[in-house]
Write a structure and sequence with these properties.
18 helices; globular; about 80% helix; mainly alpha; about 475 residues
Length: about 475
Amino acid sequence: MSDEKVLSPKLILSILSIALIAFTDIMLETALNVSFPVLMKNLHVDAATVQWLTSGVILLTSMVIIMSSWLKDRFKNRSQFLAAGIISLVGILIDAISNQFPLILFGRLLQGVGAGVGLPLMNNVIFEQVPVNRRGTMVGLASLIVSFSPALGPAFGGFLTDAFGWHMIFWVVIPIQLFSLILGWLTIEQTVSTKKVRFDLIGWLLLSAFFIGGLITIDRFSADGLWNLPSMIALAAFVFGILGYYFYARNEKEPLLSPKMFAKPMFRLAVFSAFILQMVNLTFNYAIPMGLQLILHQNSSVAGLALFPGALGLAFMAVLSGNLYDRFGARLPNNIGLALIFAGVLFMTVLPFTVLTATLGFILMQLGVGFWNGNNMTNAISNMDREFHNAGNSIFAAVNNYSAAVGIALAASIVSVFQNSHSADMAKGTSLGIMWTYIMDLILVVIAMGMSLKVMKMTNPRANDGRVVARIQAKVSQVTRSNKK
């Protein structure tokens, strides 16, 4: 595609329509987090069960995301968009009228399918249709729209839950979902031909066994321990899934996710550190609202407002850190991000749990994640051969989603263990569970920091210097125009 091609308003609106679908799905996820204590009471479920309304959705989203390359080749953009939007809308309607946990979970899982299709589709449209000279701007704007969802979600969910009940969270987003569907139908176009390609069902099933087995192992451990039949079956599925996929994909010509990428230590460490830090990040999203309501007896609105500044900081830092990456390379934003993440976890570990400390700790954590997360991914992929770039994007997207589900499930399991052991004093049990969650987080962050700093030592500075790439592209374009003349 020519780097001089004009960015049309129709294309901008098509990207906006897909971004709005992702926006509503993620906002619902974060809005429900602050309502968990209310849902536990109304639906008569415990902490380990209610967290499936978030971790189950993230799990299913991950399972759909790893299909994104096949979906891109097989189906048109508009067909994928409409399918994602309609499936998600059906799930929202089910949740808006349901009062039984299984039905509500089913509706949320449908929303997870929609998000799993919609999130990769947004990036596919941008990289296929946006001119090279405007691509960075559109990626930034689309990411900013999606990033606002976790900023607005907690405050939005807390206010609606307190004022109108938790069902209103779903009713309010229905007009946004309908608007985005109509806008997408009118504006989304196809510029790349589709083709019939084989779906790697065996690979998908093996990866799904890995994803599902890991989450169920964590969930069952909190309730029954490890030495029981359901936990052992889940653990066996987890181990069999990842080992089976590794040996299977080595001999597959076009695997869903190529294991060859993990042969490079830098990429491997970048992925593992991303998994750990995203997992820690989501323990904050779970533990803070739970603690504010069950320990400090604050309402959902206060819990949501406590998360709002940090989530807003995450949205803006993602843009600022990208600019630092382009100007100075990966090392500066990487180190700033790690320092802020460590400070946030240490802050929550050593200080008493109050509304103020929870708010400030979350701000530090989110600013750190905003600096580090996107740049870690960009740096790792930039240092890989170009043939692995699409696979690298899919791996990081799946890892970020799955680690989020693991983080919520792990935090819920720890809190649930202490709540069950102090059933006569819910506040004390919750307090102990959250304290041990943050101690675990501190250990994990130190491990991830070691991995990430090692990645920086392995990084080729020329591979992620945006200024060098820009100058090369400008020179090539200049030579091409000169030759035409």
